[in-house]
Amino acid sequence: MWDISETKIISNNTILKQLAMISYKELGLVNTRRMFSKAVDGGYAIPAFNFNNMEQLQAIVMAAVETKSPVILQVSKGARNYANQTLLRYMAEGAVEYAKELGCKAPEIVLHLDHGDSFELCKSCIDMGFSSVMIDGSALPYDENVALTRKVVDYAHQYDVTVEGELGVLAGVEEEVSSAESHYTKPEEVIDFVTKTGVDSLAISIGTSHGAYKFTPEQCTVDPKTGRLLPPPLAFDVLEAIEKKLPGFPIVLHGSSSVPQEEVDTINQYGGNMKAAVGIPEEQLRQAAKSAVCKINIDSDSRLAMTAAIRKALAEKPAEFDPRKYLTPARDSMKKLYMHKIVNVLGSNEKLQNA
Ligand SMILES: [Zn+2]
User: How far is the CA of 9 from the centre of ligand 1 (A)?
Assistant: First the structure.
């Protein structure tokens, strides 16, 4: 007998399921699992670049394709508020197709939620096609951080989406994430946290910091040769202690822009006012990339490159009013920056398998 009611239920469920979930795999995106294990073994780090507009995304994809690098596209809360989560997801899908059009046969692109602050937000990103999420419970008491992270991992792993957790607190301001003081990650907590939560990677605090003003002048010393401010060094002893506890486990560094002083100078030269902007020296990031650090987040440097190029272009051609004319040098400058990071700092170039 034809049981119409049952058929209806089955088809409704199928439709609901199709409506509710989009798998990142259908979009041509990948999660971070294989990417990170190769990076840890190979002694390099994957770039995680934040994006919230088309020119930035074009620059990231062009740089990744030309250098044959895997890449993580990051969406922060601020980016979602500015550009809309759905639109950003479609842009990431477009990025995969664009990379292929640029000649990359098998791009390895991750769409990652940066600083997810609730289970609901992580779930909504997973349901709409993100391949990786961060749940940042680092400001919570330890046990609550564990419980929240575990909940996200349980949901994400059903769909083969990878999860980044965080222990320790970074100083600085990154959109809605801000803290006056940093607290280094406690190496004695990492094994328990990773075991209890099942996270795929761990963001740690060893002295990196969000934003373009990472350190106060009082925290810095002055380089006698250049007169520039030199920030305090990263706590490599803490990183080493963590690596000893979790051999080969993927570690993530946030707030790792270097704040290139040429860009700050250009901004100031053309009417800007950025005083005492200081970042993490590239030499230290290069050293970190060779360790178990396999994802390095860079956002501020791209903002600086874009702002400097736009200010210069507008100052030199004050009659220009076509955004394409001043966004073209901005996009070129960001692309140059991304390529420099990939090749000279992270070492993720020439790492695509079938490029
Ligand atoms: Zn961050």
Answer: 44
